[in-house]
Amino acid sequence: MLPTSLTRSLTLLLAVGAPLWALTDDPAPAPVETPEETPAPEEPVEEEPVEVVAPAEPATLLRAERVHVRPGEVLENAEVLIRGGFIVAVGQGLEVDEDTIIVEGKEVCAGFIDPWSTLGIDSASASDLGTEASTATAKAASPFGEKYARQWAREAGVLMTRTQVGQNAFVGGLGAILRPSASAEHLVVLDDANLNVTCGVSRGGRGDVFDRVMEADRIGSMISGGLSYREAQVEYAYELKEWEAAIAEKEAELEKDFKKAKKDREKEIEKAEEKDKEFKEERYKEDKRPRTPRYDADSEVFARVAHGELPLVVEAHGAAELRALLAATEGFGRLRLVISGATGAAPFAKQLAERDIAVLLQPLAPGARANGERSGFDNSLFGTLAEAGVEVLIGTGGDRAADLPILAHLAIAGGLEREAAFEALTLGAARTFDLADRFGSVEVGKVAELLVLDGAPLQGRPTHVFTAGEVVEL
Amino acid sequence: MGISTLTSALAGALLLAAPAAAETPSAEAFALIADHVAVDGGTVIENGLVLVDGGKILAVGPAADLQGTLADTIRVIEHEGWLTAGIVAANGTYGMVSGADDSTRAFLGDLELRDGFDPDDSSLAKATGAGVTSFGLTSGRGNVAGGTGAVVKTSGGTMLNESSHLALCLAPPALRGNRFPTSYAGAVHAVEARFTEGQGAFGKVVAGELGLEVAVSARHEIRRALDLLKRTGLKATLRGADRAGDFAPELAEAGHAVALSPLGMGTSPWRYESITALVEAGVPFAFGLADTGSGADCLRFGAALAAREGIDRGALWNSLTASPAAMLGVSGRVGRVAAGLDADLVLWSGDPLELTTTLEAVYVDGAQVEATEGDAK
Amino acid sequence: MSDRTLFQLGAPLLFGALSLTANAGEITWEVVETAEPVEASAPVVKLLLSADKIYTAAGDVIDGGTIAIAGSKIAAVVPGASGDHEGLHVGAITPGMVDLSPRIHLADLSVEESSETIPYLSTTDGIDLFDKRWERLLRTGVTSVMYTPADEACIGGMMAVLKTGGEPSIEDRLVEADVALRGAFGSHASRGNHPVYGRPTDHFSRRPTTRMGTEWVHRKSFYDALAAMKNEERQFEGWEILASVLEGERPYFVQASATQDIRTAIYLKEEVGLPLLVVDAAAEAWKEPGLLVRSGTAAVLPPHAPQGRTAIDNGFLAWNTAKTLVDLGVPVALSSHGQSSVTGQLGAQAGYAMRGGLTRDEAIAAVTITPARLAGVDDRVGSIEVGKDADLILWSGEPFAATSRVVGVVLNGEVVFTSSN
User: Is position B176 within any domain?
Assistant: First the structure.
C-alpha cells in the first residue's frame, strides 16, 4: 500500500479528535474489519511457457546411426531417450522400459528454426504498417489457416518459426516463436522473442537516402529513449524508497510529540480565528511524494531492448542505412542487434564480426528476382560474411517455412560452410532468440523438438518429427 | 547423377571408337579433365577427359586412357568438379526484343520467329551465364499459330535450326474476344482444317518437315490437344503441360514429348508426382523458359529440387540436355558430351543436380564464355 | 413372365467377382471366387440387383424384381427373386437420369463468339471433363448428359451425349456424337452486344443486339440452308448440318425461356419447317401450351427457383408446368440447368414435378426415357430394358420421395458410388 500523505493523515486524525493511541488503547470500537485484503492482481509474470509434459506415458527412444548432438558434435550409433517431452538421456546402449516406443532412423538432429517468417499469422497482421513496439505477434498467432504451409513446414523439419507482425512497419513489434502446429495449445513457444524494426525498407514506396538514413537515427533515439525510460523508472523506485523512509521517520516523530503538536495546532487555529484569518495547516517537506513516471508499454519494450533483455532485429539493406544504423547503435553496450535483409552488408563484414552482430539473410532462389531494396542481393554474401566471422542466420522471410532446408543449400552454394548452415537453422537461431536453454540441440534437459532423418541434416528428409511432446511419423 | 558409371576400360573402348578420335588434333586443341564427366544422364565418367578442337568435341573418355595418346603440346585444363554438356532449354523467347507474339491475327504459322531474334540481346548472355547454351526459340502464347520457331545458341546466337517447329497454342491467351477464334471449339476446328488443307507451315508439319509444339495448360486442354493430335496423326511437344503426368501412358504410346514449365520454390507436390509419372512411362520431357518470367538459372535449380524429391537423376539430367536436344531435332549437335558434337560445355563445382553446386565456367563452341552464375541475376 | 427366369440367359449364371449384400440401406460387398472358368462368349452376369420396386421407365413397374447385369449391359429384368440370391437388395431401382441441360462448361471459352452461327463446331471440343461437377452429377444419379455450351451464339454447334463417369476422355464417355444442333433465342444470344460505332474492337460490336436481330440470324441461316440444299453454289460452311435439322435427321435444341422467345422459336419452326424442335429452359411454356401442342414441340424445363423466377431471362416457372404440358401430350424433360444445389439438382426437380401434379411414373420418365428420346439415345439409355446400358440409381425407398435417398449408382454395369463410400 502506498503511504498516504502525512498531512492528510494527521489532519484526519486531529479533526475527528481521535487520538492516535486511542486506536491502540481502546479495543472497544473495533474498526470495521475489512475482509482480508485480496492481493493486488500481480503483473503477469513473464513465465516461460509451460512445456507440454506427457503424463507418465511411455518413453520414446530414437535410435540412429548418427545423432547430431550439437553443431560439430556427432555420436555414431547412438540413442536419444525422451520422457515427458524432454530429452533425458543421449548415448549408447540406453536402458529402456518394456513399453518404450522405439523409433529407428538414420540420423537425428534438432528441429529447424526459421528465424524470419510470417507463418502462423494472417497476412494482414504480417503486412500491418501500424504496429508499435508493444504490438505482440503472439496475439495474432492462430493455429488455423495455411494448413498446407504448416504441414509442409513440419514435413521439411521446420518445427519453429520466429514469426513477426508488421514486417515492413518502421517498428514492427514483438516477434514470437511459434510452432507450425495445428493446435492452439502448442502454438506459441515464446511470445517475446525480439523487437523488430526496419530501416529504409519500402513501405508503399521507398524514401530517398536521407529519409532512410534518418530512420537509423530514429532507431538510435528510440533505444536511447528506452534507456532514459528505464533510468527514470529506477530513479523513481529509489526515490520512493527514500521518501517512504522519511515519512516513516516523520510519522514516528509526530506520534511522539502528539500532545505538543495538538496544542500547537489548536493555538494556531485560535490565533487565526482572532485575526479572522483562515487557518492553514502546516505543510511538511516530507509531503512531497516523488512523481511516478508514466508507464509506457512501448518505451518498456525499448528499455528491454536497450538493456539486452530482448534482441533487436533491424531490417536494413542499403549501404547507407547499414552504415548509419551501425553508427547509431554503437553506444549501446548491452544491445543485442540482429540485422536482417542486409543486402549491402559485405563492406561492413569486419565491423559486424567485431561487434558480434548476427546477420539474418534470406537466400535468393535461382530464377527469382530480387526487387526493391533487395535488388543486388547475391548469395555469395553468405560466404563473405561467414569468412569475416559474422554469425549468419538463414530465414525464409515469408510463410513458406518448408523452403528453409532448400534455402540453406543456396546459402552453402553461396559460400557458407555446411556445418555453419546447419547451426544457423538450429542452435544459432535458438541462441539468438533466447531459446538455447530449451531448444536447438540434442542434449539432456532440452525439450524434444527433434528430427529423425533418412540422410544427413539438410540433405535428408525427415521420417519422423518429435514436436510438442509427441512423435509424428511422416 | 549417373545410373551407371562406366568402368574406365569400358568407357574408353566405347567412346574412343568414335571416328572423330582418330583425327589429329590441331594446334588450337585443348583437353578438359574433370573429376566427373557426365556424357548424359545415364553415363558419368570418373576422372574423364574431353578433347576439344575447332569448336567440336574430338574425343571423350577416361583421362587414364586418353591422356597418354595426346601430344605434350596440347593444353590441359584440370577441373575439380563436374563437366557436363551445356543445358538446353526446350523453349524460350530470349532475344525476341520486339515481342514474341504478333497479336494482329490468330494464325501466323508461316511467320518465322528467327526474323524477330536479336542475337546481341543481353538476356542471352545471362542465360549462358546460367549454363544454358541452347534453346528452342518459340512464340508466346498470344496466337493459336504463333509462327515457325528455331533452335538457337545463347552465345553468339548461332542458329542450330532456322525452322524447327510450328508453335501452336490451344489455351486462353491465344483465344481472344476481338478476333477469331474466341473458343476452344473454334480453335480446334480451325487448326484441324489447316492440317487437312496442308498449306504452308501446317503442310510441312504434316509432311514431317517441321516439328510441332502445342502450348496447353489445364488438363482439359491437354486432353483436347491429345484428341486433336490423334485425329490428325501428328506427334508434338506439349508445352506447359505440367499436368501431363496424368496422361503419361497415353503420351508414351502416342510418342509425344512434354516441355514443362520450370520447377521452383513453392512448387506444389503434384508437379513432382506428374514428373515421376512421365519418368516411369518413359515420356521424353524437358523444361522450358518461354512461359516463365524467371531467369534461366531456374532450369537447373528446378531439376535439383526434383532430384531432392527423389526423381531419377539420370532422367532429370537428360531433361536439361539430351531430351530437349532430341525434341528440338538437334541431338546431332548439342545435348551430350560426345565426340562429334559441339563443344558446349559447363564446368560445375560439384554435381549440377545438387543445390549447393555452383557454375564455374561455360564453353560454347569450344571457347570459354566470360560468365559466372552470379551474372545471371 | 415366369419363363424369363435367370437361368434362361443361355449361359451359366455366375456371380462373377462381386457378392453384394444390403444391410439397412448400406451396401457392402466381398469378392467371391468363381467356381469354374466361364466360356468367353457367354454373357457372364457379374451383378444381380433386386429391389422392392423396379421402375423401368419402359412402361411397367415391377413389384419385387431382379436385374442381372452382364458386362456393361442389362442382361435380364425379372420379377420375383427378391432377396433370395447373393446379390444386392434395395428399396427401389430407377434408370440413371439423363440431363439435357447440365450446363457444365468453360463459360466464354466454350462457345465461339467470333461468329453468330457456328453449326459446324463440335461443342465437345470445348469441354472440360476434369471439372469436379461431373462427379457430383454422377453421385446424384445423373448418368448421361447432353453437353451444353454457354448460349452466347445464335446457332451454337453440335452437341453430344456423354456419360458422367468413366475416364475423362470423350472417347470413353461418348454415348453418341452430333445428336442435336444447339441454338439460342432470348437475351443471351445478344447479351453484351452493341452496334458498331467506330472501329470494331471485339465480337460484341457486330452480332445482333436485339431479339429481332437474333431471330433474323436464325431465319437467314435456315433460309440460306434451304437455298444451299437446292443450289450447290449457295453452300456454305455447316449448311449440311442446318439441312439435316431441316430434314428432321436431328433435333434443334434452342434456348427460349420467356413466352416471347418460346413463341419466336415456334414461329421459326412453323415458318422454315423444323420437324424436331426442343425448347430448352422453357420456363414459361405453361403460359401458351397450345403453341407447343400445335407445333409438336418438346420442352426441357429449367429447375424451380425461389419465387418461380429462373435465371434465364427471368422466365417464370410455375409449379404445375410439367403437369400442364404432360397432360397435353407435350414431351417434357426436366433439367438442372447447371444448378448443383440440393434444390436445383435434377432428382429434386422430379420431386417438385410430382408435387406439381405429375405421377411418379411420369416424373421418372421426365428425367430418364423422355430426355433420352429427345436426344435420340433411347436405344442406349433412359430405361431398364434388356440390352440397354446398365445405368441405374439404387434408392433406399420410393424414388424421388423426400424421405428416400440414393444409396448407389451403377454406371455401365459398375457400381460407381454407394452411400457407404
Answer: yes
